[in-house]
Amino acid sequence: MIETTGLALGLRGLTKRYGAVTALEPTDLDIGAGEFLTLLGPSGSGKTTLLNLIAGYTDPSGGTIRIGDRDVTRTPARHRNIGMVFQSYALFPHMTVAQNLAYGLEARRVPKPEIARRVEAALALVQLEGYGTRGVQQMSGGQQQRVAVARALVIEPDVLLMDEPLGALDRQLRRQVQVELRRLHLKHGRTTIYVTHDQEEALVLSDRIAVMGKGRIQQLGTAAELYARPANSFIAGFIGESNLPEAKVTEVTGGMASAEVPALGLTVRAPVMPGVAPGAPARLMLRPEHLRILPDAGEGIEARIAEVIYLGELTQFGLETAGGAFLVARGMEGRGLRQGDIVRLGWSPEEVLLVPDTGP
Amino acid sequence: MNGRRIEVLALLAPALILTLVVFVLPLVRFLSLAFTAPEGTFATFVALAESPVYRRVMLNSFVVAAVVTAITAALAWPLAYLLARVRGLWFTLMIYGVLFPLWISILVRTYSWMLLLERHGPVNRAIQAMGISDTPLPLLFNHTGVLVGMVHVLLPYMVLPLYGAMRAIDPRLMQASDGLGAGLWQSFRRIWLPLTLPGLAGGATFVFLLSLGFYITPALLGGRTSIMLPTLIVAFITEHFNWPMAAAASIALLAAVAVLMLAATRFLKLDRGMFAR
Amino acid sequence: MNRLPLPWRIAANMATAAVLAFLVAPILAVIPASFNKASFIYLPPKEWSALWYGRFFDDAEWLRALMNSLKLATLATLVAVPLGTLAAIGLSRAGRGLALASSALFLAPMVVPIVVVSVAIYRSALDVSMNGTLLALTLSHAVLALPFVVINVGISLRAVNPAWPLAAAGLGAGPWRIFRTITLPVILPGIAGGAVFSFMTSFDEAVLTIFLADHSTKTLPVKLWETVRLEFTPVLAVAAVVMIGLSVALFVLAQALARRNGEKA
Q1: Is the domain of A225 the same as that of A239?
Q2: Whole-number Å distance between alpha carbons of B144 and B122
Q3: Which residues have CB under 8 Å from A250's CB, separation 6+?
Q4: Whole-number percent of chain C with pLDDT over 90
Q5: Which residues of chain A make contact with C168, given a CB cutoff of 8 A?
């Protein structure tokens, strides 16, 4: 986690309900000054609701929002001093680039010469010097995205919010802009909350990631923490790829558990995450890169190769076990294997994990 | 939430008040006069229903509206068809030809027809020159005049929905039908015609409704021989000072309009096209 | 369907040409009619002259009717445009039920036959002794023009991305600044289009005005209506040409505005 110098944003019990539907369960969240935090989740997970609550575009059903030492729970959006980058950019089409950037400063009644100076500085920050007089519709998608970021930054916001800002860009451009956004954050150093459903984006950009699902933060942590120790099967499947066969836990002792895994036809001993208990539904997290095709017959479990996908450096295998499970393995071994071959699979016990099952 | 409701109501209020005070209130007050005839609450409606004169006016209104609808449909068909086909300059010229008349006052358009159709006007002279008739034909102040004028005024209202429906037809449908071995007539009857029917029905509803409510054109071109409901309503007031009868005739007219509108929105989903947000 | 047989295509083209001629040509007949030298209209004129244009503009009654029309159309537009614009914005923010009910009410004057509307308003104006007054004429013309403003502005409002006002608010702008700097510039062509339609609706309105206007507030269409069955002089054709001229000017203006509105959308 990046060095932080105090709290930029604090949420306590923040909730949003629409009639009987709960869009956001009571949520606590603290974000340090200068931190880059990503809200990662599928659509309908509550991430956009949370962002709109912080921005002030939606009124909460309960809870409080603090920015620095101000309670802004009832403050209208225009007095929150938050910079927002919309998915559609929401650039004003009837204004030039410079007029778009100046908009927030004019609303703040900043003197004209200072507006000009700050607009120039913001354009330089996003490497769009000299584009001030262009109409926004003459800009390419990537340029528009940078204008949107510059417009949000030029008001010197306490918090920068970004709602899937790369969603409108094509795949290749997206990679490039991710790196730019990361560099830009190092330059401006503003507290940033970033919403996306793309886990790769989250991994590249964030200091910490809040994985959202079913209207709540499922787990909060660094990318490495989430990958190595996912709190439940939802996160295990969402951050990176994973085989997640069902497991029947029989006993838990000292952070380790024994569990029957019917799909593999054996009993495993593996580390556990909190919440795993005998009788409670659980799943075994088996990452594709941790699943190895063993050279010797006799050990591991038997499986039939159902598909072979050549990925260049790596090869990916789709495997059917005798117990009827479909597993994915990926690695540098197994070059000569073909569809239909019978192989044996193994893994190191410390690389697998038993996690609570959150259901499909 | 509450503040938002108040804001919305404040925005709507001035226009709502104007419409209520200057339109709804006068309309309700006027229509309620129908039940104030000295002979009894429903005497006006009884009079309307029993008098052969009034019955003939109402029948005439519907007949004229139906004939106007049929003629406009026949004329609009080829125009809408070509409008849906052509592009570029020809399209611009044609669509302006359809839209431009809508911008000219109905009174002016009717007056033009008075000049053209009069006894010694250019139309009659042309008829005589071509030897169709030796004497000038009576084209004005009868059914002929009313029909010509109303068809002219209402034609664009038929062309536009028909054109909309025809333009929406994917040309590949006809190619597909062709590829499946259907002949030209079959493709037309089984594909083209059914797909243009909603446009035709929409246009027909428009034209029929507007015909029923027409006043200026029948009054100027129809004279005394082709009286329609609106003319009757005005006559009740200006000639007989009989407000209850005028109100009763208005209710009859409104009822016909309402029934047609309901049927149209029910079966054609017109509302989605007209008030789509 | 370009594969229609040639004879059919020729027939369709000729039919179309005939129908288009039927739509446009009769309207233009009043133009040669207005240039007759004789004191009765003969088409085409045997002798051409602009004599009757002079008569029209020298006649105090015709001139006053024209002025009344222009004044009334301006006043009705000044009432209908702000009210209709506010209403359209309100409709775009209202809940579904309220929006449907209100727009039905605003559009009703377009659906109810004009004769019924006219007679009803005439009766109420009589009851409150306001018939013939400019106020009654202005307000009732504004009611007839209102739906055109609501529809035009409503269409242009659809070009306003809902994220723009949010973005503006996030940048610190209050409701009035957002309206002035974001919403208004985008919907301005729609408002202007609504104004043109309003002006045209009022300027051409005949039925209601026949009932409501008195001698001093008589408009050009009413004067035309009154004279049409009494006289056959070319001065009527001149009045008709004046009305067509204004229509054409506004038609061109409306097309230009519609194009701008379309570009923004």
Answers
A1: no
A2: 16
A3: A257, A258, A259, A260, A267, A278
A4: 60
A5: 92, 103, 107
Tell me the whole-structure pTM to 2 decimals. 0.81
**Res B170 pLDDT > 70:** yes
pLDDT at A172 over 90: no
Number of A–C residue contacts, CB under 8 Å: 63
**Domain layout of chain B by residue ranges:** 52-104+140-274
How many domains is chain A built from? 2
The chains found to touch C (3+ Cβ pairs under 8 angstroms) are A, B
pLDDT-based confidence at C124, cuts 50/70/90? very high
At residue B267, the pLDDT reads 65
Report yes or no on C40 lying in a domain: no
Q: Is the pLDDT of residue C262 over 70?
A: no
In a domain, C18, yes or no: no
Per the domain annotation, does A224 fall within a domain?
yes
Tokens of C147: 């739906």
Q: Which of B204, B75, B221 is nearest to B150 (CA)?
A: B221
Asked if C197 and C251 touch (Cβ cutoff 8 Å), the reply is no
* pLDDT exceeds cutoff 60 at B271: no
Domain count, chain C: 1
Q: What is the CATH number of the domain that holds C241?
A: 1.10.3720.10
What are the tens digits of pLDDT across the range C201-256?
999 999 999 999 998 999 999 999 999 888 788 899 999 999 999 988 988 888 88
Same-domain status, A208 and A309: no
Task: Give this complex's ipTM.
Answer: 0.88
- Are A117 and A230 within one domain? yes
Q: Which of A51, A57, A105 to mutate to test the interface with C (most CBs of C within 10 A)?
A: A57
Most confident listed range (A5-14, A165-174, B10-19, B95-104)? B10-19
Cα separation, A29 vs A63, in Å, equals 11
The class (CATH top level) of B52-104+140-274 is: mainly alpha
User: How far is it, in rounded angstroms, from Cα B20 to Cα B17?
Assistant: 5
Mutation target among A54, A86, A89, A115 for the C interface, most CBs of C within 10 A: A86
What's the pLDDT at B133?
A: 78
**Sheet strands side by side (includes A21-32):** A21-32, A7-18, A62-67, A70-71
**A315 lies in some domain:** yes
Q: How close A16 gets to chain C, by Cα (Å)?
A: 19
Q: What is the pLDDT of residues C66-82, one digit of tens each?
A: 999 999 999 999 999 99
Alpha helices in chain C, H assignment, sequence order:
6-28, 30-34, 51-58, 60-93, 96-111, 114-127, 134-157, 163-170, 175-178, 184-204, 207-212, 220-228, 234-264
Q: Across the interface, do C164 and A92 touch by the CB < 8 Å criterion?
A: yes
- pLDDT of C232 reads 80
Q: What is the CATH number of the domain that holds A299?
A: 2.40.50.140
Q: Does residue C42 register a pLDDT over 90?
A: no
Domain span at residue C105 reads: 58-264
- Structural domain containing residue A43: 7-234
Q: Is residue C45 part of a domain?
A: no
What mean pLDDT, rounded, does chain A reach? 89
Residue C171: which of A56, A93, A155 has the nearest Cβ?
A155
CA A262, A264, A265, A271: dihedral to nearest 10 degrees? -80
What's residue C265's pLDDT? Answer: 40
List of chain A residues whose C-beta atoms are within 8 Å of the C-beta of residue C167: 84, 86, 90, 92
In a domain, A1, yes or no: no
Is A2 part of any domain?
no
Contacts of A158 in chain C (CB under 8 A): none
Q: Which residue bears the tokens 């029910």?
A: B266
Q: Do C170 and A77 touch (CB under 8 A)?
A: yes
List, as one string, the DSSP characters of B154-184: HHHHHHHHHHHHHHTS-HHHHHHHHHTT--H
- Closest by Cβ to C16, choosing from B27, B78, B174: B78
Q: What is the pLDDT of residues B73-105, one digit of tens each?
A: 999 988 898 888 888 888 888 898 898 888 899
